[in-house]
Structure formats: C-alpha cells, structure tokens
Hints:
The protein is mostly beta strands. Among the domains are: 362-395; 405-439, no CATH class; 448-502, no CATH class.
Amino acid sequence: MKKITKLISLLLVVLMVFSVMPISASALVYSGEAGENVTWTYDTKTDVIKFSGWGPMYDYGTIRPTQWNLYKATIKEVVIGDGITHIGSNSFEACAISKVTIPDSVVSIGNDAFRGCYNLVTIVIPDSVTTMGISVFETCSNLKNVKLSENLEIIDNRTFHGCLALDEIEIPDSVTAIHDRAFYHCQDLTRIEIPDSVETIKIEAFAYCHNLSSLDLGKGIKNIGTSAFSFTALETVHFPASIESIGTTAFFSDTQTLKKAYFEKGVEKIDPTAFNVSNADGGTSVGLTDIYFSGTESEWLDIDAALFRSYFTGTMHYTHSHEYKEEIIVKPTCAEGLSLMKCVDCGSSYYEKTAPVRSHNFSERLSIDLYATCVKSGLLTLGCTGCDATKQVPTSKNPNNHANTREVGYAKETCGKDGYSGDIFCDACSKQVVYGKVIPATGNHKDDNHDGLCDVCGTDTTVGCDCLCHKGGALAPLWSFVRFFWKLFKMNTLCECGKAHY
C-alpha cells in the first residue's frame, strides 16, 4: 500500500512539473490551468502573468498551491482577463507584484488573495465586486492608494491589517459593516469618514492607527465594538443618535488625547471602560474631561451608562448645540474642495466637500488603454492639468493599424523560376496592406542525377561546356560510340562539367 501511495505521489509531482513547462523555450513563457475554464500564462521576459477565460479561478491554499508559486518573487504585474468572475483565495499571496488590473466581470475576491504583496502601492477594485474575503490586502505594507467598489457590502476581517502606508481611504456608502481588525495598525491613516450606511464597527477595527486624529461617524452607526478605536490620536468624537452601544475599551488609550465627546440625544448604552486611559499607577480611568449632550440632564440619566457616569469626573454640558467654524483643508479648483467644520465649544467636527470653481482641463495624455485598429475605435486616458482627475475618451479608427493579417500568393524562387514575396491582406477590413514583389530566380542549378539536366527545373546544365564529349558536330557519332564502351566497362562516368558521359 505504501509503494502505491509513493507511486501516486510521484506521478502527481511529474504532472505538476509538466503542467508548467514552457510552451516556448526561447520566449520562456509558462502556462497552466487556473480554473475549470481559466488559464494562465507567465512571460519571464516581461514578468507579467495573465489570466484568461471565463468563470471563477480556483481557490488556493496549503492543499492546493498555485502553479505559478515558483515565480512569486519575480512576477511584477497581474492582468485578470475580462470574463473571469472570481479571484481565488491565496492567488497572489506574498508576490512581488506592483500592478494589478481587475476587470468589471469580477464579482468576488477570495481570502488572502493579495496578502503580503509588499510592492503593491495602488489598487482599484471595480464596482462589480460585491464581496471580498478576509485578509485580502493584509500586510501590503506599501499600499497607499485604494479605490473600493461602490457596491462592496462588508469590509471583512483584517482586509487592510498592517497596511502601514495607507493614509486615506474612502469607504463607499454600500458598506454596512466593518469587521474585526479591518484597518488594524494602519499607522499612517489620519482621518476616516464612516458613511451613513455602516451600522457596525467590530473588534479592533481601527485599533493602533496611531495617527488617526479625525473620525466622522455616519448617522446610521449602531454598534461600536470592543477596542474598535483604541490607541489612536483622536481628540474628540461626535456620536449620532443612532448609537445603540459603545463597547468595552472602544476608545482606550495609553495617553490622554481624547478629551471631548459629543452625544446626541438617542444614544442607548455606553460601556464603563469605553473611554478609559492608562494611569501612571498602572490603573485606568475615564480619560474624557468634557462631555457635551444635546438633551437634558434627565435624558442623560436615562442612558444605560450608570457605571460610566459614576467613573466620569469631568464636566457635563447639557442641551449643547454646535457652533461650527470652517477650516479650509483643500481649496476648490476644477476639483472639489474640502473643509473641516469644527464646533468651537466641544470640538465635534465633520468634513464637508465644496463645489468646484471651474471646469476640468483634460489635455494631458496619460495612457493609451486600447489601440485603435482599422475597424475599431481606441481608448485614451486623459488627465486634468489642474488636478488628479482623469477621464477615458474614445479615439478614431486607425486605417493603418491592421490587427489580423494573412499572406496570399507567396512562392519561393528556384534556380530557374522567379518567386513572389506574397501580398498581405487584412482579415478585418479586407484591404491589401502590402503588395508583393518578384524574387528573381537564383540560377543555381542542381544536377544530382548527372544527366545534364537540372533536377528542379530541367534546364540543360551543360550549356557552355567546352569538353569534346559535349561539343557535338561531326565528332558526335564517334563520341557516342566511345561513350557506349565507357558505359559498358563503367569508365569515365562523369565529364568535367558534371554531366554523365552516358
């Protein structure tokens, strides 16, 4: 039984080796299967791996490693072809990729798909994606620019855990929940705006975001989990009326930075340790110095927060109404501006976008996304000269760019017959692209039969021969008689011109 098991294991190894053998030794292009209807090719010259076909990719892991696992350290670019619907789990974990192209046919991305891709700086998730698994971009330490799908429903566990360079991200208003450690230790993240669609922020979702100093909670938030915003640089937080519970050590810190909090009337429950801070003696206490409440004192006492109230030693401000002061963060140009609206009393703040003051000037040519051909228009990305805005525009058909061509009428030249280089026609538009040329005959006759005639074209190869046996004339009958005896006794079989004497 052990011998059979070893034999099966050996056969599997051999099959895996052959499945990734180069399809062309000179081009060093490797290929294989990545799904029931998905294939992959990796070009070692460009370090680009491409996936084509339709339907989902396989999910990978310890039991099923990727076939391109050997090239993880050299793959620089991933191109997912249109028609693929799912990027498999662990597909590119710890790869050296710096560029990823995802088409709008993809609807889901599996667990750990890009985990540990340390060279990845920018990623755009198309709006077709509704689901991303856990740890998709975990420890992508240089990931800085992220565009999330406008239809993403959940930011799952550890999605951006350890993305140290991520300093800003816009959460789309399709998201309803941010799960455990989704943004854990994103140390460069400075501000976050939670849209009204989000109802739940779970355990340590933004914990150890040491530079997070601005938080705008949406009006739909209900539950803030344990240590969700612990060890941040927040100084003040505004809690909307939708809050049902603020969990244990939700805003815990070892330094007293969060001193002010504003609660709208309607908040239901506050955990006693939600705002605790470490003390010099090793204990903890409520770090808040001021609490601003939109309701009355009796309404404050109705909140399920008896222990919290008993621990709080700061100042209460009832029936507080905000008096906002605008601070311009980004001046509007052809792009939207951004202003910080901050209450002069409680410090509660939110960001407000301001309308552009002029139109975009899209005159900077950034990239050609699709080259125009004789039958199809192309696509060009233009950039605005005044901001980072881009737009994609179609380009006219190019009558001189023929993508698929065929050769007609080619004939190779011979010793006695002219050849023809062939005409080139476009399969798409039927236009003749190249007109062929006549290739002169070589004149190099071949007479392996030694009969005085070219084996290819039949030309007399003895023309110009000065030997007596081929001169003919009056001596021709005599030479015929002599050749008869040469043939009989197998003598003098070849003339100096190469023709047989007989």
